[in-house]
Amino acid sequence: MNLLETLHLALRALLRAKTRSVLTALGIIIGVGAVIAMVAIGDGARASVQKVFDSMGTNMLIVMPGSSMSGGARGGFGSQPTITWEDLEAIRTQLPSVRGAAPELRSNVQVFSEDQNWTTSVVGTTPEFFDVRNWPMAMGARFSQSDTDSGAKVAILGQTVVEKLYGKGANPVGQTLRIKKTPFLVVAVAGVKGQSPVGQDFDNTIFVPASTYRRQVQAQSLGSFITGIIYVQANSADQTARAQQDITQLLRERHRLGDEAVNDFDIRNLAEIASGQQESTQTMSLLLAAIAAVSLVVGGIGIMNIMLVSVTERTREIGVRVAVGARPRDILAQFLIEALTLAVLGGVIGAAVGLGVARLLAAQFGWPMLVRPDVALAAIAFSGLVGVVFGLYPARKASLLDPIDALRYE
């Protein structure tokens, strides 16, 4: 009996009990579906996170003020103002490994434009901020250093703010909006930046000069201290670690911290944060892969169980086939191909289910869905291997049946 005839017999046997075949392959379907969905979502999430970090720059550092102590409880970094405007100027001008630095003072404020209002983040900063963050203007021109020095009431709107106050695609340059009842002239609209790794909408922001922010938006005066964070751009990605060391040494010297004193500031390296995010995603992917592998093994055991039942049910059929000339290897091949076909069909169905689940989850979380054909083919091939491994014992048991005993079996 050739391979096509054996395959035909296997398909006929499977089609005779469609429901049982589907239920038998359920473990394989779930396992392969989980693998496909997990890899597609994992790759999409990694691509989304990497896109955010690439847009922020791989040579970016974030300098944060220190932490405060209250009643024995220590707050997080940024809760205690320890970095001054003079520190910022020193970072910007004294370190050759630094290309630029800019502050970010942030508050959530309700803003008004004619009959529309919207709650958004108002950021006080300097013109250099847009170079450091690689953030071009979509309309108009950003405010200048003279605007910062004079405390001009000018504002740059993010795309989300434009959409909420003026409508999608509108050009608000030249119009006036009110921030805390103070009128600001819109001078530009920033380009689209997207979301942060934690889901913060970068485009839901209004930028104003830092001096104007401190005077019009900030509720309290902290003298020369910066109440936000500082973005620092190193000369290149290779010099990021060097820039981090230089900034640490400079601030420790300026803050007169002794050898044993801990830093009263914190420096975050975005490249390290991105690497940590990738490692976390990879670890989660490995965990899900292990769960999917367990499901495949369970599916394989289910196939072996049903194939053993099938051998018992078809004992007389096996006896007849041997009596008319079928060899043990023909019986072995028939049941082995039957198990293989069942597993591969389960793998194909599982791949389709996995793609559907990945598409739904990607649409829900706003991630791109990246499907890797090699992963889909590998998952289906592995399901076939599971079918062969777990179908071998029942097939061998069928091939070793004594034809006389098989014909007498009731």
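Second entry:
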Amino acid sequence: MIGAIELGLLYGVMALGVYLTFRVLKFPDLTVDGSFTTGAAVAAAMITAGQNPLLATLAGGGAGLIAGIVTGLLHTKGKIDGLLAGILTMIALWSVNLRIMGGANVPLLREGTLMTPLRDAQLLGRTWIGVLIFFAAVFVLKLIVDWFLSTDLGLAVQATGNNKQMIGSLGANTDRTTILTLALSNGLVGLCGALVAQYQGFSDISMGIGLILVGLASVILGQAVLGQRFIFLASLAVVVGAVLYRVIIFAALQVGLNPNDMKAITAALVVLALLLPRWGVLKRIPSWRDLRGGQVPAGAETKGA
């Protein structure tokens, strides 16, 4: 269970990236499946080459950022549909990732990584101290995302997602905000890939397949439970959703379900998270706001994607 929570917190970094494109910009970005592996591949290649693990992790995030820029340029300057632009970048990254890793898999078990001090101290997967360390790091990152969305540029990004035509008519450069959001989103995804590779001890060409579904499940599941009334709560919800997703997968494996069925379980979770709020089921369950005595205005809860 502790290992599942730690992994969920790491995937919370990816969920924050998916939140920026899916909820804030309202952009169907499928680059995630490729940029996650790109971040892992860059970090693994640099670590095995003897580079500093922190530098390798940041480089993994930077590689994801570049992938997001490519998708943004294809969509805004090339006038390619957003969905197709993400798919094209994702497919191209498959070959790029193989080039970076020099093969389909790069082991890191005998290399010094960011996780090595925690693993040597026996804090990973065994004690709640490891969970607290991961939570503190992800929470700081979440606060940075909150701060960005509260700046003038962040407000322009939100306005682009809410009504691109209107904000464009007011003179705002929507191409710039779109490219910037895609870059930041995939930068977070690449950073997550670099961290997960070091946590699991390997980088693999297939580790990003279907990850966009995991990200959507985290965002939708978390916001269905906590809501999205404020930026602070909405971003916290996606991190909580990532942890909930991992705990549910852990529970499914514990009761003996076939690991090959995990993708189907993920799809079922997304469908349930989308349908339950519309059926009003979650509104009958006391939320943490209700427990604090707060009132939930009618129609304020999420209505799904």
